[in-house]
Amino acid sequence: MIDTQQLSDNVLTTQLKKVVNWSRRSSLWPMPFATACCGIELMATASSRYDLARFGAEAMRFSPRQSDLMIVAGRVTTKMMPVLQHVYQQMTEPKWVISMGACASTGGVFDAYATIQGIDQFMPVDVYVPGCPPRPETLIEGIMALQRIIDTEGLPPAGQRRPLQLAIEPSYKPAAQPVPLTVRRQSSY
Ligand code: SF4
């Protein structure tokens, strides 16, 4: 016979969506795409000092089919972008992307034709982590921000997520130099 007095202490009711989102946010499996100095901070985040395992995201996988969170850490060149997109496409759904650091998010100081001026021109990004480089605490804050997104929204509704662009084309227009330069020819030459 069931003791109805103790029932309230032993039964938990919730929604299926909340349980699914809770399990997803508590077991993120990152796929590190670290190309430069930001990658060192990414490695430090998984170390014992910062202990990313507290957030259930320490199981870094170098196989895209076992990952659901891509962390792009460092600058990406035009030659690398097709590889990055290929890796992203192979990741399991549902999947999320963190753009870590100034270079991944904007190209950083590398305003050059060979450097992608922000990976979000070519693939969807869920969270941007600022800094050059971001400290491990900042990356952890970015992961917590992603967990809040998963908690409240789950996946973006169909059609609202930015599609993957397969063409490598810059989406910005190069501007003229802000200061006009005058080059004078020396008569002594
Ligand atoms: S944002 Fe700064 S630290 Fe990160 S890859 Fe670029 S230059 Fe290196």
List the helices and strands and how they pair.
Blueprint: H1 4-10, H2 16-25, E1 30-34, H3 38-45, E2 69-73, H4 81-90, E3 96-100, H5 101-106, E4 127-129, H6 136-153
Parallel strand pairs: 1-2, 2-3, 3-4
The site of iron/sulfur cluster has 11 residues, from helix 5.
Write up this protein.
- The chain has six helices and four strands.
- The protein has a four-stranded parallel β-sheet.
- About 3% of the residues have low confidence.
- The protein is elongated and about 105 Å long.
- With 189 residues, it is of the alpha/beta class.
- Helix 2 runs antiparallel to helix 6 and helix 3 crosses helix 6.
- It has a domain of 116 residues: Rossmann fold, CATH 3.40.50.12280.
- The structure holds iron/sulfur cluster (SF4).
- The site of iron/sulfur cluster (SF4) has 11 residues, from helix 5.
Q: So how many helices?
A: 6
Biggest β-sheet strands, sense, barrel:
4 strands, parallel
Q: What structural class do you assign from the helix and strand content?
A: alpha/beta
What is the helix/strand order?
A: HHEHEHEHEH
Strand order of the largest sheet: 1-2-3-4
* Radius of gyration (Å): 22 Å
> What is the CA-CA span between the terminal residues?
106 Å
- What general outline do the C-alpha atoms trace? elongated
- How many strand units? 4
Low-pLDDT residue intervals, each spanning 5 or more residues: 165-170
Overall pLDDT metric: 83
Classified by CATH, the class of the domain at 38-153 is: Alpha Beta
Gross CATH architecture of the domain at 38-153: 3-Layer(aba) Sandwich
Measured as a percent range, the helix fraction is 25-40%
- The CATH topology of the domain at 38-153 turns out to be Rossmann fold
